[in-house]
TrEMBL record:
UniProt source species: Naasia aerilata
Protein name, as recorded: PD-(D/E)XK endonuclease-like domain-containing protein
Region described as Disordered: 467-510
This protein's UniProt keywords: ATP-binding, DNA damage, DNA repair, Exonuclease, Helicase, Hydrolase, Nuclease, Nucleotide-binding
Pfam family, one: PDDEXK_1
InterPro entries per the UniProt record, alphabetical: P-loop_NTPase, PDDEXK-like_dom_sf, PDDEXK_AddAB-type, Restrct_endonuc-II-like
PD-(D/E)XK endonuclease-like domain mapped to chain residues: 296-471
Comp. bias intervals (Basic residues): 493-510
Comp. bias (Low complexity): 472-492
Length: 510
């Protein structure tokens, strides 16, 4: 396409068409070099394309091809009209400025050229629908600060003051901001009044954006019961038919469900409905009377068992995938273990984040701002963890175990888990530490009754933890099983330095 004549050696129909296009591009380039206007360039391209004859003949017929040709012709007329207006408004301006203006526009410019609006969607400003009506009107971006936009207009020539002077009114009584609000209200009333059948208003409510105050002017719409309409998905249709059949057993929905069952649509077969078939068994999941039976219990799930045994069972049998917060917590646990077991390791927040960054690419975020939010939150947690580890090293305590696994039996239950840290203080007290990275942590009053920490202490008391010195064994006079520490959230261990307590509080807010 760089120069004409290069397709002459290819004797095929596509090559001849490509050669014709290359010749057109060359002529347009030469005309532009001679200073031709955008209107002249468009006419040159249009005449060489031969589309006027082709589309004109197709538009005379009926059907999809004729409708498509009519839309093409309407677009061509609108483009030529815009080019003519550009030349009249800016004579002598290069054609490239017109192309940049058209390609950079968010909305098509208003034009007096005739346009077909049948079977089409009109995207325009409110002023462009004056005198027109539509079956459906969608008013978008009803956000505070966007609509109504109370920014003052006409601050250069002040046309409102000129109008007041001509009418003999005092200029001091003009409220410019009220005039702008009145104009915004008139445009809103114009937009919403163009709908014949349906009006759709859209807005967003979040931390950064608030819905427009104009929405309060719209009366509450009645709830749509959805009568006579079915969802457009097979799964949604099956649900709607089953709901209708449950409310009216004699409904024709049974025949529709039978038809869907023949096509093996999921959920349509009554044999798969909950409560239709008898339970396959009513025997317990485990025979607790059998002395050989052992039911595995995780310390982290004991609180769920106490709150709702059914919820614990469902979570164990059909666990949902962990969220991004839980995944980041796992990486922070790994970073703590790595730094704890490395002699002379750097315990600063930067070192903790460096260990986290080694696995940061494993996470998948919905959008860049979510990643930025989670990274800032992780940085605050890393600061809290670094404060805890630095204070531990500075106070001269000793680490007995990191990610220490244990297993012991309590009746028919087999408790199996992992303790984040087992520490020995300078005065010989045994401290069990569990790192929490969630948005909520136990309060000081909840710690003595906390089920997870209770099982950790029970593991230490039953001898399930290896490597504990004899003088620090639970029950020794110098130890206290209630002095547990909570890293990353709050700590029940008394701090000797007020600054350390403040750092712990900062990490707690994270």
């Amino acid at each position: 396409m760089a120069a004409p004549g290069r397709f002459a050696t290819l004797d095929t129909a596509p090559a001849r068409r490509a050669g014709h296009l290359a010749e057109t591009i060359a002529q347009v380039r030469d005309a532009h070099g001679r200073g031709a206007s955008i209107e002249e360039l468009l006419w040159l391209t249009w005449e060489r394309s031969g589309l006027a004859r082709t589309w004109g003949a197709q538009a005379q017929g009926t059907g999809v091809l004729a409708d498509e040709a009519n839309r093409h012709l309407d677009s061509a007329v609108a483009l030529f009209t815009a080019a003519q207006r550009f030349v009249e408004r800016s004579p002598g301006q290069p054609a490239t400025d017109f192309l940049a203006e058209v390609l950079g526009a968010d909305l098509p410019e208003d034009t007096l050229a005739p346009r077909a609006r049948q079977d089409s969607v009109l995207v325009c400003a409110p002023t462009a629908v004056l005198g027109a009506e539509f079956d459906v009107v969608a008013v978008s971006a009803l956000q505070e600060g966007i609509w109504p936009n109370l920014r003052l207009r006409g601050t250069l020539l002040h046309p409102d003051r000129l109008a007041a002077v001509l009418e003999g009114l005092p200029v001091e009584q003009i409220d410019a901001r009220k005039a702008v609000l009145d104009d915004e209200l008139r445009m809103f009333a114009l937009a919403v009044s163009r709908a014949r059948a349906a009006l759709v208003l859209t807005s967003v409510a979040n931390v950064d954006e608030q819905p427009s105050s104009l929405l309060r002017l719209i009366p509450d719409a009645p709830l749509d019961p959805g009568t006579g309409r079915m969802p457009l998905t097979l799964r949604g249709m099956v649900g709607a038919l089953r709901r209708e059949l449950a409310g009216n057993p004699g409904s024709p929905a049974s025949a529709a469900l039978a038809r869907l069952r023949e096509e093996r649509v999921p959920g349509a077969d009554p044999a798969t409905w909950y409560g239709v078939l008898a339970p396959s068994t009513d025997l317990p999941l485990a025979d607790l009377e059998d002395p050989e039976t052992r039911v595995t219990v995780s310390p982290s799930r004991l609180a769920t068992v106490e709150k709702s045994p059914l919820g614990w069972f469902v979570d164990v049998m059909a666990a949902s995938p962990s969220g991004i917060a839980a995944s980041i917590g796992t990486v922070l646990h790994a970073a703590m273990e790595k730094l704890s077991l490395t002699p002379g390791a750097d315990l600063s927040a930067q070192a903790v984040m460096a260990a986290v960054d080694e696995r940061w690419n494993e996470f998948s975020f919905e959008s860049p701002w979510v990643e930025e939010y989670e990274r800032r939150r992780t940085t605050r947690l890393a600061e809290g963890l670094a404060d805890y580890l630095s204070a531990f090293d500075r106070d001269g305590h000793r680490l007995l175990g990191a990610e220490s696994g244990f297993e012991f039996d309590v009746g028919p239950a087999r408790v199996r888990g992992t303790i984040d840290r087992v520490e020995l203080t300078r005065d010989g007290a045994l401290v069990i530490v569990d790192l929490k990275t969630g948005r909520r942590w136990p309060t000081k009053d909840e710690l003595p009754e906390h089920a997870q920490l209770g099982l950790y202490q029970l593991a230490a008391a039953s001898g399930a933890l290896e490597g504990l010195p004899e003088q620090a064994a639970p029950g020794a006079p110098s130890s206290s099983s209630s002095r547990t520490a909570w890293a990353g959230g709050c700590s029940a261990r008394p701090r000797r330095r007020p600054s350390a307590r403040r750092r712990s509080s900062r990490s707690g807010r994270a």
